[in-house]
Amino acid sequence: MNLAEKAKRLPGQVVARAKYDDLLYTLLQLGVASLSVAAPVIAPVAIYINVMQGKEKKYTKHKLKNSFYHFRKAKLISVESRRGDVCIELTKEGERRARLCGVGKILAGNLTSEGRKWDGKWRIVFFDLKTERTRERDAIRLMLRRCGFIFLQKSVWVYPFDCSSEVEFLRSFFQLEEKEFRLVVSEDIGEDDYLRKHFRLPIHS
Fold it and tell me: What is the pTM assigned to this prediction?
């Protein structure tokens, strides 16, 4: 089964339920599936807790500590010292779990715009896949819709809030090049009152 088929069939609610997998997804979003800190005298678990507390407010320090040791025991993360830096890195299995969790969040509709302030700019996604990649195209449309994007025209979708991390995640998950899956930010896309109404944004006076 290829990635597109997994994405379309994946029960997002179940994936999101796996123990602490949302924290793996947060680690993945921090960049290149690794965390490197120039602090050799500080215990890796303390570094992990300090960084994750700034990203995951719902977890207590005790739960974050438990998640760190859970990940190490399950071989989902590795901890190494490189040139004096402490490196906390997702293993291949950890990265796989993190990506599946990300897909689950999208398919479960967990990426919402509620409470976010609009900066007046539209995020426009263009994707251009070869004809034989129909399954990937269908799966991408499904995910964009679950992310809250609105269909503008053929292979062009629009959203009002920052979604660069989600776009990068989808590009990585489907193994696409930037020219195949592009994000453009624009203040003017022409007549947009119907989009503003849909997203409950201020209407032009």
Answer: 0.57
